[in-house]
Write a structure and sequence with these properties.
Structural class: alpha+beta
Oligomer: single chain
Number of domains: 1
Helix content: 10-25%
Radius of gyration: 16 Å
Largest sheet: 8 strands, mixed
Length: about 170
């Protein structure tokens, strides 16, 4: 699949919620590679701002055809700078007191099973989509699919939703 096709697919904004467009990547990459992939599309890994956004993403993940039930999607949350200090890709902290924290039971656990450095990056796990608690901290060097996010923009005015003419 060419980058141009991916960009065109993303620009059509078929997966949208609120004022954002999403691209669910079929390519499994390390966390940094996933972030670079999203940046190449003019986006970044998803930052989940609300319960409603988490509901939207979980529903999409639930219906996404995966090669394994254990499939996961990287999101833009990491504690790679300071252990236990979770921050989004835009530098804002995760507010664990708000309605926007959706860890699987027992997570985050920083398990060092796959890497001595532990688990510093977060993925939405498909196996957990029975409810909204789908976040798992994982080793950043493990390959997962990813969810890219960008604002919806009109090609005419530069603001608002991209117009779909079908």
């Amino acid at each position: 699949v060419s980058r141009g096709f991916l960009l065109l697919t993303f620009l059509s904004c078929n997966d949208k919620h609120g004022d954002k467009c999403y691209y669910f990547s079929n390519i499994s990459l390390f966390w940094k590679g996933s972030r670079s992939f999203c940046e190449d599309l003019g986006a970044d890994l998803v930052k989940i701002d609300s319960r409603e956004e988490q509901e939207f993403l979980v529903e999409k993940v639930k219906n996404f055809v995966m090669d394994t039930i254990l499939g996961s999607f990287w999101i833009g949350l990491t504690d790679s700078e300071v252990e236990g200090n979770w921050t989004w890709v835009d530098g804002s902290p995760l507010d664990s007191r708000s309605d926007g924290c959706f860890w699987l039971e027992g997570e985050p656990n920083n398990a060092a099973g796959r890497s001595v450095s532990g688990e510093d990056c977060v993925a939405i796990v498909k196996r957990g989509v029975e409810d909204l608690n789908t976040w798992n901290d994982d080793t950043c060097s493990f390959a997962h699919k990813s969810i890219c996010e960008k604002p919806r923009i009109s090609p005419v005015s530069g603001t608002g939703e991209l117009l779909n003419k079908r």
